[in-house]
Each structure stands twice: as structure tokens, then as C-alpha cells.
């Protein structure tokens, strides 16, 4: 008698675990990350919460649109992620999608930082002047 083999469905979803709650969502700790849209080379991703259906954010690397962006993480944030080298960090920013690309904004003040070695993540709160939670994605 053959034994059924259980396999995981193939997926392009990467999962991250937030070490502290995303502000405003205290129970949302585990998130899946997928490319947004049909183009696998798209810089945009969707971050979907595993615990709450429908809770999702569009994120993008800030360096695509803001090449001079230099987030400075405090020691507590770096320690919570167990980051030892900067090369292990991925930085993303949450977008607020507008009616058009000109109305879409990025939260540069609260980037998502992921340690790619352990998939731990945090939404950092930066204390750098000149950064905003509603920076126009283009045309700024």
C-alpha cells in the first residue's frame, strides 16, 4: 500500500516574523512577501499578514525612488533583529497607493527592516529630520 506524500504547495512567498508589533496592528506578527503584479522583476511587493485576512501593504525598496535615502537605525532596532552586518538588512517602505502614481506616497520615516539571515523584521521609527510618512513617490 502506497503512503501518500504530503508536499507543500509551491509558492513564491517569503515569510518574515516581526519582533515587535507593526504600529496599529498589535497581533500581526507573521507576514508573507510576494512580488506585486505579474512582472517578476517588479520592484513592488505585497506584504500580507498571515493572521488577519485582507491585511496587506504594498512595499518597495526606497532606493529605487529615493537613491539618497540613508536610514539610520538605533542600536535597539539593530539588536532586536540580531543584525551584525548591514549587508544582511533589506529595507522596504510602505506605500499609500493614490489614484495615480503622482498621488502615491512612501513612508520614509518608518521603514520595514528585515534581517535576511533569520527573517526577523521590524518597522523602525527613525528620528531623522526631513523624513516624512507621506513622501510623494515621484515628483518630489
Automatic annotation (TrEMBL):
GO biological process: bacterial-type flagellum assembly; regulation of translation
KW Thylakoid (keyword) present: no
Predominant localisation class: cytoplasm
Keywords in alphabetical order: Bacterial flagellum biogenesis, Cell projection, Chaperone, Cilium, Cytoplasm, Flagellum, Translation regulation
Cross-referenced SUPFAM superfamilies: BH3618-like
Family annotation (InterPro entries): Flagellar_assembly_factor_FliW, Flagellar_assmbl_FliW_dom_sf
GO cellular component terms listed in the entry, alphabetical order: cytoplasm
Annotated localization: Cytoplasm
Role: Acts as an anti-CsrA protein, binds CsrA and prevents it from repressing translation of its target genes, one of which is flagellin. Binds to flagellin and participates in the assembly of the flagellum.
Assembly, per entry: Interacts with translational regulator CsrA and flagellin(s).
Family: Belongs to the FliW family.
Protein's name according to its UniProt entry: Flagellar assembly factor FliW
Organism: Euzebya pacifica
Amino acid at each position: 500500500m502506497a503512503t501518500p506524500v504530503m508536499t507543500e504547495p509551491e509558492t513564491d512567498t517569503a515569510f518574515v516574523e516581526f519582533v515587535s508589533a507593526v504600529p496599529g496592528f498589535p497581533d500581526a506578527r507573521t507576514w508573507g512577501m510576494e512580488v506585486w503584479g505579474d512582472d517578476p522583476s517588479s520592484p513592488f511587493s505585497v506584504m500580507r499578514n498571515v493572521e488577519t485576512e485582507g491585511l496587506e501593504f504594498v512595499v518597495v525598496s526606497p532606493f529605487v525612488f529615493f537613491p539618497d535615502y540613508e536610514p539610520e537605525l538605533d542600536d535597539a532596532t539593530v539588536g532586536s533583529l540580531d543584525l551584525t552586518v548591514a549587508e544582511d538588512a533589506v529595507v522596504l517602505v510602505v506605500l499609500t497607493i493614490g489614484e495615480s502614481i503622482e498621488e502615491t506616497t512612501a513612508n520614509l520615516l518608518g521603514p520595514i527592516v528585515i534581517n535576511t539571515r533569520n527573517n526577523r523584521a521590524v518597522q523602525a521609527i527613525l528620528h531623522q529630520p526631513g523624513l516624512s510618512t507621506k513622501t510623494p513617490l515621484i515628483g518630489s
